[in-house]
Recover the amino acids of this structure.
C-alpha cells in the first residue's frame, strides 16, 4: 500500500477536508478495482482517470458473459427510461443495441436467459407503445 497522505493536528479545516476528499476518491477507486477483479471484470481505473482494460487467460474465460450481462443491463435501463423518463429514451440508440443483439441471436445457444428476457421485454413494450399510438 503506497503512502497516501499525512494528517497533522495543526492543519486547518480546509486542508483536512481537501485531504479527506482525496482519500475518499482513492478508496472509492480502489474499491471499484477490487470489485472488478473479484467479479472477473478486467477493467480498472487509474489515478489519473484513465481506464485500463486487461486481457489474458482469466479474462478470456469471462468476457463473453460479462458482455451479455452488460447488454442485459442496457435493455433493462432503456426499458426503464421508456417507462419513466421518455425524454431520455432514444430509439436510435436502442436500435444500435438491438442490432447487436440480433447478431448475437445467430448463435442463440450462447445468450443467457436474463439477456433474452431483457430484450424481449423491451421489444414487447415498444410494440405495445406503437399499437397505442
Amino acid at each position: 500500500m503506497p503512502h497516501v497522505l499525512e494528517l497533522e493536528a495543526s492543519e486547518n479545516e480546509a486542508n483536512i477536508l481537501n485531504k479527506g476528499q482525496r482519500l475518499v476518491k482513492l478508496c472509492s477507486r480502489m474499491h471499484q478495482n477490487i470489485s472488478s477483479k473479484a467479479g472477473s471484470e478486467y477493467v480498472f481505473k487509474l489515478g489519473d482517470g484513465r481506464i485500463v482494460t486487461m486481457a489474458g487467460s482469466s479474462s478470456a474465460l469471462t468476457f463473453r458473459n460479462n458482455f451479455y450481462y452488460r447488454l442485459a443491463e442496457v435493455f433493462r435501463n432503456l426499458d426503464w427510461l421508456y417507462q419513466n423518463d421518455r425524454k431520455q429514451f432514444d430509439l436510435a440508440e436502442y436500435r444500435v443495441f438491438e442490432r447487436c443483439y440480433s447478431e448475437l441471436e445467430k448463435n442463440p445457444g450462447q445468450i443467457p436467459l436474463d439477456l433474452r428476457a431483457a430484450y424481449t421485454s423491451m421489444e414487447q413494450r415498444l410494440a405495445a407503445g406503437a399499437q397505442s399510438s
